[in-house]
Specification:
Mean pLDDT: 97
Number of domains: 1
CATH topology: Pnp Oxidase, Chain A
Number of helices: 4
Helix content: 10-25%
Distance between the termini: 38 Å
Strand order of the largest sheet: 3-2-6-9-10-5-4
CATH class: Mainly Beta
Number of strands: 12
Order of helices and strands: HEEEEEHEHHEEEEEE
Structural class: alpha+beta
Bound molecules: flavin mononucleotide
Largest sheet: 7 strands, antiparallel
CATH superfamily: Electron Transport, Fmn-binding Protein, Chain A
Low-confidence stretches: none
């Protein structure tokens, strides 16, 4: 079996965008996630993979199996890198983004960061335990591009970046 360091390095060669997945709890919770994928067009389904060591997992799983029933995937712009670092626990911002940044809610009740590139608001359709993560399949009830001109933030080889035009 491949060792953890090799696996991490290999997976890091797959360039991704970065999202903040928000949860409809009070106070709201956010977690930086790049294990995000489209799954199905009809019905519209996405997935996020959430580490069992995180607070987000505690909230989604719930104490008696009755966890939070929805989430919103916010696709970050290059200008929102600080949000991604904040919700990954890498930096402490001098503001609470849930108070200071413009947000709204859609179907799930999870905050939508309105300065994001795009969002997909979901209800949890299924949860599949997968090793030390759980895959949360979400049915997308509301989604939109919020800023078509913004540049996405990228993550590749463990580094944050931007996607240069060609
Ligand atoms: C670029 C990047 C991508 C990440 N992707 C994921 C992910 O897909 N799933 C996950 O569970 N954690 C991911 N993390 C780690 C979490 O964001 C981190 O553990 C966070 O502090 C957990 O927050 P919480 O415990 O407050 O919920 C990622 C971190 C970074 C920097």
């Amino acid at each position: 079996m491949v060792d953890t360091d090799t696996f991490r390095t290999v997976m890091g060669q797959f360039a991704t965008g970065v999202t903040v997945v928000t949860l409809p709890v009070e106070p709201p919770h956010g977690i930086t996630v790049n294990a995000f994928s489209s799954v199905s067009l009809d019905p519209p389904l996405v997935l996020v993979c959430i580490d069992h060591e995180t607070r987000a997992y505690e909230l989604l799983a719930g104490e008696d199996g009755e966890g939070v029933g929805g989430y919103c995937v916010n696709v970050l712009t290059a200008d929102q890198r600080d949000l991604g670092e904040h919700f990954a626990g890498i930096v402490d911002l001098d503001r609470d983004p849930f108070d200071a940044d413009p947000t709204r809610t859609e179907v799930s009740g999870a905050p939508v960061f309105e300065e994001s590139l795009a969002y997909a608001d979901c209800t949890v359709e299924a949860a599949h335990e997968a090793g030390d993560h759980t895959i949360y399949l979400g049915r997308v009830g509301s989604a939109a591009v919020l800023d078509a001109d913004a540049e996405p933030v990228s993550f590749y080889g463990g580094e944050w970046g931007t996607i240069a035009g060609d």
